[in-house]
Amino acid sequence: MRSLKREIVPDTPTVTLETILVVDDNASVLKVVVEVLRQARFQVLSARDGAEALELANKTEGRIDLLLSDVDMPLMSGPDLGLMLKKTRPDLHVMLMSGGENGNLLVLNYGWAFIQKPFVSAKLVQMIVDVLGSPDRSQLGGQEFDSRKDTR
To answer: What is the pLDDT of residue 100?
Structure first.
C-alpha cells in the first residue's frame, strides 16, 4: 500500500488538506476517486447524485473547497450542481470530469476546470492542487485546466 501511495502523490503531506465534495453516479468511479483523494490527504465528502450532494453540502457546516463532479448525471448535471452550490458557497472551486466525448463542451461555458475520464490518479491530484491554488474560483476561458491539452 505504501508504494501505491507514493505513486499517486510522491510528496504527500502529513496533514489533511482541503475538503472536496466528489459526485458521480457511477459507484465504481466514485469509490476509486474518493480513495485516491483520501490517500492524497484531502478531506473527502461523496455523493451519488446532485440531490444527495446538495443535501450533504447543506448539512456540512465547515468549508467545502472544491466540487469534483461528473458532468452528465441523471436529474441534475455537474454544471447545474456547481451553479447551485456556488449560490451558497461562492468561494467554491468547481472541477468537472467526464468520460463522454463532448463532456468538456458544457464546461467551456462556465470556464471551470475539466479532466477527461479515464485519468491517471497523479494527474487528478495535481489538477486539483492547481485548481485550488488558482486565485479565481471560475477560470477564465484562456486559463482553463483541460487535461487533454497537457503535454507533460
So the answer is: 78
